Amino acid sequence: QREFLPNWLLDVSYVGTKTIGLIANVNINQSFPGAGAQPQRRPYYAINPFVTNIALRSGYGAAKYHSLQTRVEKRYSRGLMLTLAYTYSKYLSNGGNINGGGNAPPQDARCYRCEWGPMPEDRRHILVLNHVYELPFGFKRQYANRGILAHIVGNWDLSGIWSMATGEHFTPGLPAAVSNSAGGGGDRPNRIADGNLPVDQRTIDRWFDLAAFAAPAQFTFGNAGRGILEAPGSFNVDLGVHRVFRITEKVRLDFRWEMFNSFNRPNFGGPAAGIGTITAGQISGTGPARIMQFALKLAF
Questions:
Q1: What are the pLDDT digits (tens) for 182-194?
Q2: DSSP secondary-structure letter at 145?
């Protein structure tokens, strides 16, 4: 951490964690891949043929997080306060629900290492800019600081949060259970190429390369890992306008106008990931459109 100019601070840090023993679901009675009826291929069939899935809350989960975190801060001066933060990170795990998400067990209950990959929350690049700027007009400010003009144009503040991030990671799947193995987390295809298209080739109708995946041989699991594809990134700007109206020394009226997704930019959701379906690779949803709200608060 270093102050490189008056009122300007630079902070650079490495943040990393390693976690073991995380609770995650596994079906210890998942049938082995194969042809024919599934009950006879379950591990505990000989003990009790009527028992199907056995969901075990196991501590097999593990996770790693590595990040380079940088922050530039302009301390309050001349009416402006600003913070710019950038994070480059990587977040990997083999647990499907360690952050309270879906409870899907592994594709293959006998291969925990096959689940190791980027988590959905793994956004490699995140940039956030926060600012508050007091316009230099009004009482106790640089310009128009007295008289009627100060009442008309004075004491306005502008604030904003500008956030940009690369996309979350998601997993390709298959619409049918090729393995014929009941109780797993869903079958995945074979990966024969990267699958992520170059940025200039991605569209909402073809977000990733479908030709990079193929159905595995009958009664086998696919080799595609979890979280190998990247969804669309996001860009969002929230802006606010604030003013304090002094009515008397002890009475004031606060006005706020806040806009979320101020530029009404569409932030697309993830594409359909079922390889072999008609909608595979297509994006059909977006985040919320612009939302505005106004508020008045009387303080006395």
A1: 888 889 999 999 9
A2: -
Q: Are 61 and 95 in contact (CB under 8 A)?
A: yes
Print burial letters for 38-76: b (CB count within 10 Å at least 16), e (below 16): beebbeebeeeeeebeeeeebebbbbebebeeebbbbee
What is the percent of the chain where pLDDT is above 90? 73
Contact 196, 281 (CB under 8 A): no
CB atoms under 10 Å from CB of 3, counted, come to 11
Would you state the structure tokens that stand for residue 104, as one six-digit string? Answer: 């899907």
208 close to 216: Cβ distance less than 8 angstroms: no
Has residue 100 got a pLDDT over 90?
Answer: no
pLDDT at site 97: 59
pTM of the entire predicted model: 0.85
Residue matched to tokens 């009675």: 29
First to last CA, the chain: 42
Residue 80's SS3 state is strand
Annotate 84-118 with b (16+ C-beta within 10 A) or e (fewer): ebbbebebbbbbbbbeeeeebbbbbbeebebbbbb
CA distance 278 to 299: 58
Q: Are 289 and 261 in contact (CB under 8 A)?
A: yes
Q: List, for residues 215-249, the tens digit of each pLDDT value.
A: 999 999 999 999 999 999 999 999 999 988 878 88
